[in-house]
Model the fold of this input.
Amino acid sequence: MPKKVTSARRRRAAQKPRRGASKSVAPKRATSANAAAGHAAIEATLAALAHDIRTPLTGILALGELLATSDLGERERAWAVAIKGTAEHLSMLTSLIVDAAKAESTGLTLRRGLFRPHQLAEAVAASLAARTATKALTCDVAIAPDLPQAVIGDQLRLRGALENLIDNAVKFTDRGSVRLEAGAERLARGRVRLAFTITDSGIGLSATEIGRLFRPFAQANAEIARRYGGAGLGLAYVKRLAKAMQGDLTVESRPRAGSTFRLTATVDLVAEADAAGEHAVAASARAAPVRALNVLCVEDNPYGRVVLNTILTELGHRADFVGTGEAAVETVSEGSYEAVLMDVTLPGIDGLEATRRIRARLGLRVAVIGVSGRSSAEEEARARAVGMDDYLQKPLSASSLGQALASIAARIS
Done:
């Protein structure tokens, strides 16, 4: 007969630790900590790499933009525009890689800024036209006339996602056309769902290939990976981004019959009166003559200095240069500068600490514009928290820098 187990014995047995149980907790915690440290190291390395890439890209983008607005023939102007578009595309690819790595460890943090959906759609359409022209494909564009005038959302990441989709559409299409459609659906509580559809006549996908399409670092099949290249990261990230924007990325496709990708994102509607007012202020700032400013540029890259000096000279401003945060603090304290163009990543003390020290010595007497190759909302928030008046992302364009300096000039006039 089996012995009867009393409730007291059950309690004592339950209180005894199982053999090996206590030994497994520490390794699991160590593994988790090591994984987190690994993610952080990868993210930091990719962010630093993106910054290093975007510094020379500033030269390509800004000089291409200046060339496009200079006295050139139509053929040469088209070349300059193509150079500028290529630099913008490379910049967006670096953003996609860094964002995707960050999303794996800490999740996505979306920016909230005012932008105009029609302008966004036109910019993507121009990019599509340039890409299709290189392969002699037909480019079709249909932008709905009732797109909202202005919305609040993450334009930078939305543009990057769309660039990824049109890039794929052109890559996988050898003959025929690529079509972009942009529309919007009004939702409750002042929200709008933007919808972008990209249709191509390319190689298409089977149901099995579609099933693998949104997995990170996976291609539809080995032959596609060999023939067309690519890491297989883009679509997985774009779908994740669409979900973060309360939208989605869907696909319809058949082998040898093309594909249709539809990206949706939910944004907040801006009242037309507010949007019109913002537009009028910006237009007034662009139209008004800008007084020449004395600008201190804090840039340690020699090529970056040449480019910035060219841009600022073309814009009519005077520039001096230093290469460290410590030198920036001393030079601003001794000089008569109206603006400081502060690279956030510097040897010695970084641009954030240099700005803190400038504010501690000079208060609000000089405007500081942060310049960084890092595009996250957290980075911009940290920059503004230490007293930076504006925050521009590399690669800098002549127009964005000109507008920032025009705003400063208007305030001190």
Remarks:
- The first helix runs from residue 7 to 15.
- The longest strand covers residues 259-269.
- The chain has three domains: 35-105, 113-273, 287-412.
